[in-house]
Amino acid sequence: MYNDRPHPLLAQIPLTVSPFISLPSAPTLPYTYKSLPSTLPPSATADSAGNERENFIVSKSGHAASPEEIIASCEALQIHLQKMHDDAKKFIRKWENGLREEELAEKRRVAPGWLDREEKILQPTKSTVPENNRNASPSIQDGSANIMDQQPEGQASSLQPPIQDQEGHDLDRAFGGMVLGQV
Predict the structure, then answer these.
(1) Top-confidence range, 80-94, 98-112, 121-135, 166-180
(2) What is each CA distance from 137 to 2, 46, 63, 144, 145, in whole angstroms?
(3) pLDDT tens for residues 21-45?
(4) Is 102 helix (H, G, I), strand (E, B) or coil?
(5) Which terminus of the chain has a lower count of CB atoms within 10 Å, N or C?
(6) Which residues contact 146 (CB under 8 A, 6 or more apart)?
(7) Could you tell me if 129 and 141 are in contact, meaning their C-beta atoms sit under 8 angstroms apart?
């Protein structure tokens, strides 16, 4: 098959020439035809060192830039946005920590020592009995007395008004007694 003789079986098949099929023919070249050079000419946008010479991307505003400048500005913008994002996160974290510290300081002001200990059980302290209640009955001193057994505070044993009401009595003496509810 690789030699110049056809295969014996294929040589037995007759070939017909069809008037509808035209075989390709060599094109005729014009007289102005110039053959291509074997090497490519230098780039129109780069100098001999391979660096871009001109900014050939021009925006509508008239600003011209090369692709490398556009990529560099995009990367700088991305770095700037990331820095702004990190700064904002730090600011928010600092603000939240400040709020937590203020709340903790307020809680410590309201209940000093409460947050500084591990045990959280509050136990009341026993108060001493005041001097005027020491002469009272033993049932009042131990705290098991009935509230109905005590005299009301408004009806003290002495006839003097309490020190708080003294100012009210002085005003009544100066301006006269006023009865509320009368118009």
Answers:
(1) 80-94
(2) 138, 113, 101, 11, 9
(3) 887 888 898 999 888 888 877 766 6
(4) helix
(5) C
(6) 139
(7) yes
Written as six digits, the tokens of 157 are 């044993």
Looking at the predicted structure, is the pLDDT value of residue 169 above 90?
no
Average pLDDT over the chain reads 75
Residue 141 half-sphere exposure toward CB, CA atoms < 13 A: 11
Indicate if the pLDDT at residue 155 is higher than 70: no
Residue 172 CB contacts under 8 Å (≥ 6 apart), including other chains: 178
Structure-token match 């014009």, residue found:
30
Give mean pLDDT, residues 126-153: 59
Which residue has tokens 């937590």? Answer: 100
SS3 12: coil
Instruction: Dig out the tokens for 38 from the structure.
Output: 């074997």
59 Cβ contact list (under 8 Å, min separation 6): 65
**Helix, strand, coil: what percent of the chain each, to 5?**
40, 5, 60
